[in-house]
User: Fold this.
Amino acid sequence: MRRPLVAPVLLAACLIAAPTRAADAPPPILVGIEYALPGEARGFAPLGVPAVKPLPDQFTWGKMQAGPDRPVDFRVLDRLVREYQQAGFSEIVLGLKSNCAWGVKDARANLAPRPQHEARYAAWVGAIVERYDGDGRDDMPGLKAPVRWFEVGVEFSSYEPEPVEDYLRMLALAHGAAKAANPDAQVLHAAFLTTTVFRDHPAPEAVEPAYARGDRRILFHPLSSLRAVLDHPELFDALNVHALGDPYEIEDLARWLRWETARRHYQKPLVISDTSPSPFIAWGPATVVAGPPGKRGVVVPPATEADRLRLAAYFRRLLDGDPATVRWVHAFVAEDMAKKVVVAAEQGARLLDTSFMEDLEILKARLFHAAAGNSAWGGMVEVKVRPLRDEREVVELRPSFNAVRQVWSHLKDAAAVRRIATDDPRVRLYELSDADGARGWIAWLEPGHLLLPGDPVPSAVVELQVPGDAMAQAELLITTPGQSEPARRAVRAQGGTFALDLTPTPVFVSAGR
Assistant:
């Protein structure tokens, strides 16, 4: 399966023409982590990424305001903001969940505020934005930088089940309150969830039938409701989505949103506020292979229905705690997250939160039959919980921690990320423009089908054409437990080309280093 693939890149010309990025200009994408809990900020500080999203369930409207005449309690949110800012995180994304037994229309089916409590809901949103805006008035003591990113609801799905008309009313209230407190606040609508809609890569104008075929467990709201939100760009500052499938759904999502907004004559930046490792199967039992479709998990690309039997055996091994299978999924999560970051950067996403900071422990229990797929084993770290002291200590770094740190180290000083076409569509080759004008690449081979433990690993060779005997440095993405630094090797061009051996594990090439 190894054959040369030629991707001509004239390095000398690129060095001359490469755009440089001013020292104070933002990177092509802000990389973050989710879902943050108190007590583990210091353990994540070495990651070096700028953004963090605390778990929104910790500071819902009802938890912060116990009754209509009670004051807003900032203690939990203050602790989160303080700990993560002190650990070096400069961008904090706050998901504002309106869940409130006394304040919403229906605690199970409609989370929009009751008419008599709309002013109180707006006041709660405004109080949060004001406390963390850094203007010196009513700010949290010790605030180090303004908090700018606010989601109104965290996902336009069963987590935000109300009719779109009610949601838009709530969004308008929150947007008005946030902007009144801080005109620079970045207000995000509840994120769109479209996993599996783009399984067959429909053109934007053909999304409607693809959406109609989707599973209602995922696509809780009809497409018309998503479009109703898009009809009101005055109520949000960025397009907010969740990327819970394979990395390449990001490309289709971005293309569809560009098409939808162009029809409405506006443009907005893209934010990917939640991700998860590609689950293979989710939204239902992964170990069940027979019975009605609604009683089985949803197969997610790159998996297909033909893989269901193999996947059931794979997830049973994970539920059994088989060490080799657990090591494999940790390596897979590292690769998957790195690819999501690169694909999102190339698509112009302004921010992406990588997941998860910890395993979803409860979903690893046999009772749930791996209903979240790989996501349950997607934690970046192993933690030790000390409940009596309300502390969490990071005791082990997983490969995905170091992989995200590694990919961020290559992107943070880049001016641009651009995909380069090759003779083989399986090859993913991305060119980086660095601030000093140097060039670098990130590349991997995408097999286009499911790989599980023990499957043959495909490979190929891509050739980068460069002048003379130029030197470069190559490093493989970290996927090995206990490895904190990548293995690096110097590469010299032979006959004007760098020959890169590619597998599904990303490789980084830095020119002239």
About this structure: Confidence is low (pLDDT under 50) at residues 1-20. Residues 323-346 form the longest helix (24 residues). The radius of gyration is 23 Å. DSSP finds twelve helices and 24 strands in the chain.
